[in-house]
């Protein structure tokens, strides 16, 4: 059942995934469902909603990421990765990309470590630490920062800035409150490069991807 749902979503997104990609996305979803029964990794339950809201939501950003990330091996930080969204689906589909998943909650990082081993993902790093602490340890190391439902936009941008290389980008996955959250952002500090609607097949929930670049340097990297 989930395979047909996943295939339907992928076809509508126009993504050209191979059988291994789809099998690994399926396995990731199964493991999340299994762990969620015990560890409450996510509030979304049920196979149908999981496919749409987890996997399809996460990989729907890929065409836009590919458009902006020109490096063949970009280094991306996923702040507040939770159960690995969107980083794990992205890592499955883009094995040449390097993703660092930062999550302070131990039960969630235990799941991420489990999935990394289960799927043999060699392109991800998992850090069980606070985002602020990692920013101090690895300033200016990343081509991009991404997050899905981690915190409000203004705070996410403040947390992202220390991670970025001079030409780094922030990808913020947002919903219907994106305009409201944008009003709290100081646009003297940030430039909005794109505000793209994300079409999630068979789902009426509004999704948008904001792409921003900093106009100022982080004090940690100055």
From TrEMBL:
Q: Which UniProt keywords apply?
A: Cytoplasm, Methyltransferase, rRNA processing, S-adenosyl-L-methionine, Transferase
Q: Extract the Gene3D superfamilies matched here.
A: Vaccinia Virus protein VP39
Pfam families, alphabetically?
A: GidB
Instruction: Please state what the protein is called.
Output: Ribosomal RNA small subunit methyltransferase G
Residues given in the record as S-adenosyl-L-methionine binding sites: 80, 85, 131-132, 148
What is this enzyme's EC? 2.1.1.170
For this protein, the record's PANTHER family field holds: S-ADENOSYL-L-METHIONINE-DEPENDENT METHYLTRANSFERASES SUPERFAMILY PROTEIN
Biological role stated in the UniProt entry: Specifically methylates the N7 position of guanine in position 527 of 16S rRNA.
- Source species of the chain: Polynucleobacter hirudinilacicola
Q: InterPro entries this protein is in?
A: rRNA_ssu_MeTfrase_G, SAM-dependent_MTases_sf
Q: Which gene name belongs to this protein?
A: rsmG
EC class name: transferase
Instruction: Give Gene Ontology CC terms.
Output: cytosol
